Structures are given as C-alpha cells and as structure tokens.
Amino acid sequence: MNELRKDRIEKRLNELKQTKSWLAQQMNMSLQSFSRMLGGNNNPRIDNVIELSKKLDISIDYLLGVSEESTIDVSLKDISEKTGLSVKSIEKLICYKNNKLSDRKLKALNLLLENNDLLLSSLYDYLSIYPIGETYGNHEDLNRSMLDYDKEKILLFELTEAAQGFKSHLKYEFDEQYRNKKIDELELRIFKENLTEEEIDELSKLIKKLKNYDKDSLI
Question: Which residues form a coiled coil (predicted)?
Fold first, then answer.
C-alpha cells in the first residue's frame, strides 16, 4: 500500500479549520500514535486509512496519492477520470443544470464543445501563454519579453478569427422553420396577452429582426 500523503491531510485539516489533535481524537488514537502513522515509516493499516477517509470526507485514493481528486462521490470521480475535467468544474456544470437562470451558459458550452474544435483550440493556445495561476497585470508581467507580446498578438488574432468563424457557423445553422415558428409565437403573444406598449414595441422589434434575417446578418 502507498504511504499516506501527509501534505494532503494537512491541507484538508486547514480546509476544515481543525488540528491534528482533533483528528487524532476522532480516530481514537493518541497524538503520538497518530503522528507515527503520518510519519511514513510503516505502511498504514487499511482500517485506519478507511477511517481517515471518513473523518476527513475525502477519498482513499486521494489520501494515498493515487488520484488528484479528493471527492468521495464516485459518480463525480468517474466523470472526472473519463473527461479530464476537475470535480470543481463538474460541480459548476451541475449547478448550471439545476439553475434555470444558467441554462444559456449550458447551451453555450454545448455549442462550443459540439461544433467548433478550432475555437477551443485557439482559446487554449492563447491562454497557454500565461503560466497557470498567473495574475494579469502584476509586476512580473513587465518581465515578459517582446517576443511573448508578439506571440500573444498573433494568437489573439487567430482566436478572433476562430470566433468569427464560429459565429458564421451559428448563423448558417439557424433553422428557417424555427425562425418562422418563433415569429408566429411572438405575434400570437401580442394578439392574446395583455401587454404594455413598451412590451409590444420590444416584441415587434424582435419580430422585425427575425423576418429580416438572412445567413449574413447577425442572429
């Protein structure tokens, strides 16, 4: 069995705002015995590892350094391993799914993932100029060479081009049948619902925009 990752246990204790003494007490161990277990001189007993996982609410694989994800939620862990997404990213997607106000964000993500690898690739290339975790605009940014700035400009141009291409793709895919159906629905709303003049004006503008739509216009 792998040795326990002491750094990960300490990190989790910090998150819980607890101490090693507290954890030793939870494990029904003396602080001396607990410290010995973390020392790494001997392989930990499996029952202690299981209990440690329960008390800290993190996975056994994470405790032993086998996995980078600490969650004990098997489904999230499986999704993370299959997709490469972090558990935090997956949880955010779930939050979008459960929140109707975030529905448009999910639709946008699906459009990107399903339709345009070039845009995502260009975005990755542009963001990869900066080390992960670097803060934009700090004093270290001044030490970047002119070559870095030139590369940034080129990649930003490519990203912009990819975004324009993706927009054209969306316009082309805008379905004629859906457009006509939406026009009918909006006109019916104006006819049936007790709307204010302002609401009628807004809907009328939208109807006009939809009627004048062509593949070279903005959606």
Answer: none
Answer yes or no: are the C-beta atoms of 18 and 25 closer than 8 Å. no
- Provide the 3-class DSSP secondary structure of residue 217: coil
Name residues whose C-beta falls within 8 Å of residue 139's C-beta, 6 or more positions apart in sequence.
Answer: none
Please answer whether residues 76 and 87 qualify as being in contact, where contact means their C-beta atoms are separated by less than 8 angstroms: yes
**Pairwise CA distance, residues 87 & 80, whole Å:** 6
Ranges in the chain, pLDDT < 50? 132-136, 139, 216-219
CB 8, CB 63: distance < 8 Å: yes
Tally the residues of the chain: 219
Alpha-carbon distance of 45 to 37, in angstroms, equals 9
> 6-72 — its CATH code?
1.10.260.40
Contact 4, 44 (CB under 8 A): yes
Round to the nearest angstrom and report the end-to-end CA distance of the chain: 58
Cβ 50 vs Cβ 61: under 8 Å? no
Q: What span, in angstroms and rounded, lies between the C-alpha atoms of 114 and 110? A: 6
User: CA 135, CA 137: separation in Å to the nearest integer?
Assistant: 6
Buried b (16+ CB within 10 A) or exposed e, 89-118: ebeeeeebeeeeeeeeeeeeeeeeeeebeb
Q: What are the structural domain ranges in the chain?
A: 6-72, 116-173, 176-211
